[in-house]
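User: Could you go from structure to sequence for me? I need the amino acid at each position, not a summary. Structure tokens:
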């Protein structure tokens, strides 16, 4: 695969390939054994991420799923109920690890607006009865992947965390695309992280690294997370080759996130209004197309015939994610492909 093959590939922002500069940074990284805590590049990345997120400590992970699972296991002693969004990544795309490995029951909360509906959360809160699972943790997603990259409203997050505080329950943020939330809302990521107990941020999504996510939180929480990461098989040795990509991305790719968002908005605005296909107004780098008929597979095929790739996320919804390897020409091809569909 070459970057130019991805110019009009909007299936995901995980598809990006490391550029020459990133490969060079990986190739020249100073290394050590990270299970001994001796990889200077990993340590540097963790320190930098902790500073950016305003949290005392950080830990580098091979994946966001492992970092999320580790957070669940560290926040919760044994069993209990996890309150998460109905459409969240943790609910749908992590193979039920919250139950299979962390031993949690799940309460799905209405998140159709892109954030947890607090009335629904309160109405589903579990009373203190010995034969019912004890509320243990709340997780939120920012940006919200399946709802089109929605940015979590700060006021909503504050109110949610106040409620969690009252109940003495921690809040974890699945911030796989937190930097895109920051770029989309024109805010510092600390505006969100200051309210939550822990947060996971992915380097392998919009930031364009081949591998890696970072979990952030209090020092003792991260010390515990290091043990759980090892338990899950995530202790990596000379992981500095990967962390170097992260450091490079934080320097070089951070300013590019704006462009993803501009391009995403550009396609949305140029597309206009059509009955057969409605585009959801984007807040970051994800564009959702809502079809009138259950024809998502046909639309994906129609686009593929024009050299454009998107993802059917249900029978009547398609997703387009804008990333570093897209080009102007690729974005125009997407727009033309969508418009030609409405003319069929
Ligand atoms: C991709 C993603 C994850 C998991 O990341 P992996 O590195 O693929 O395991 C978690 N949450 C959200 C919202 C994601 O988009």
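Assistant: Here is the amino acid at each position, in order:
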């Amino acid at each position: 695969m070459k970057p130019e093959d991805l110019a009009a590939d909007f299936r995901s922002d995980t598809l990006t390939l490391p550029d020459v500069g990133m490969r060079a940074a990986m190739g020249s990284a100073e290394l050590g054994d990270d299970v001994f805590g001796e990889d200077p590049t990993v340590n540097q990345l963790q320190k930098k991420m902790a500073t950016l997120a305003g949290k005392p400590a950080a830990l580098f992970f091979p994946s966001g799923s492992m970092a999320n699972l580790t957070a669940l296991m560290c926040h919760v002693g044994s069993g209990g109920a996890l309150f998460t969004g109905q459409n969240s990544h943790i609910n749908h795309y992590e193979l039920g690890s919250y139950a299979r490995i962390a031993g949690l029951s799940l309460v799905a909360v209405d998140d159709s607006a892109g954030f947890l509906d607090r009335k629904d959360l309160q109405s589903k809160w579990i009373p203190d009865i010995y034969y019912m699972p004890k509320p243990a943790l709340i997780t939120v997603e920012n940006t919200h992947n399946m709802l089109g990259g929605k940015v979590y409203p700060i006021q909503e997050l504050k109110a949610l965390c106040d409620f969690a505080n009252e109940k003495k329950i921690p809040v974890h943020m699945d911030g796989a695309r937190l930097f895109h939330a920051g770029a989309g809302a024109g805010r510092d990521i600390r505006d969100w992280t200051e309210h939550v107990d822990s947060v996971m941020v992915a380097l392998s999504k919009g930031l364009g690294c081949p591998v890696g996510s970072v979990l952030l939180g209090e020092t003792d929480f991260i010390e515990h997370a290091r043990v759980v990461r090892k338990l899950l098989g995530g202790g990596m040795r000379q992981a500095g080759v990967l962390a170097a990509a992260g450091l490079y991305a934080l320097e070089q790719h951070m300013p590019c996130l704006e462009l993803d968002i501009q391009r995403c908005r550009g396609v949305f605005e140029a597309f206009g209004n059509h009955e057969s296909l409605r585009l959801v107004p984007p807040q970051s780098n994800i564009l959702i197309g809502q079809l009138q008929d259950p024809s998502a597979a046909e639309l994906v095929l129609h686009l593929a015939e024009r050299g454009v790739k998107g993802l059917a996320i249900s029978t009547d919804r398609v997703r387009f994610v804008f990333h570093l390897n897209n080009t102007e020409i690729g974005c125009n091809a997407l727009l033309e492909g969508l418009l030609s569909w409405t003319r069929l």
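One structural detail worth keeping in mind: Residues 257-271 form the longest helix (15 residues).
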